[in-house]
Amino acid sequence: MELIERLEKKSGGFGAFLQLAHNWADFEATKKSYELVARHVTPRFRGANRAREASLAFAGDGAARFMGDAMAAATAMIQKHADEEAQKTRTRSGSRRLVARLRLGVSGRFLGTD
Predict the structure, then answer these.
(1) Distance CA 112, CA 105 (A)
(2) Which of 1, 24, 30, 84 has the fewest CB atoms in 10 Å of its CB?
(3) Are residues 56 and 73 in the same domain?
(4) Please, are residues 16 and 4 in contact by the beta-carbon 8 Å criterion?
(5) Stretch 19-33: mean pLDDT, rounded?
(6) Residues 79 and 104 in one domain
(7) How large is the greatest C-alpha to C-alpha distance in the chain, in angstroms?
């Protein structure tokens, strides 16, 4: 890619890049070379990866902030869950006390034993 970039800069740009095949290399290796050019080189020079590169740079530049935000959100949800569980426990124990008080009369004796 560096060679193509140098050629592009030196020539002022060009519309196409032609490869000359001599069929000297193993055909499978040649196909692999074409595949690599198609997957990595061509998209770069067509600008097909600009959005992806910008996204990667954004994610990399903001990684510390994103991780901090994610940890804060996880901590908040853990605390919310703990608060909800504590409330359930208080409600259950309050309900048990209410049931016990209902079984006892105003005098503090068990109902039905007068």
Answers:
(1) 9
(2) 24
(3) no
(4) no
(5) 89
(6) yes
(7) 111
The answer to whether the CB of 47 falls within 8 A of the CB of 10 is no
Residues 53, 84, single domain; the answer is: no
Query: Which long-range contacts (C-beta less than 8 Å, at least 24 apart) are formed by 46-53?
Result: none
54 is in which domain, residue-wise?
A: 1-61
Q: How big is the CA angle at 72 (ends 67 and 77), to the nearest 5 degrees?
A: 125
SS3 of the chain: helix, strand, coil, percent, to 5 = 75, 0, 25
Report the domain count for the chain: 2
Residue-wise pLDDT tens digits, 58-86: 999 999 999 999 999 999 999 999 999 88
Quote the DSSP letter at residue 41.
I
Cα gap 31→18, rounded to integer Å = 16
- The residue among 38, 45, 36 whose CA lies nearest residue 5 is 45
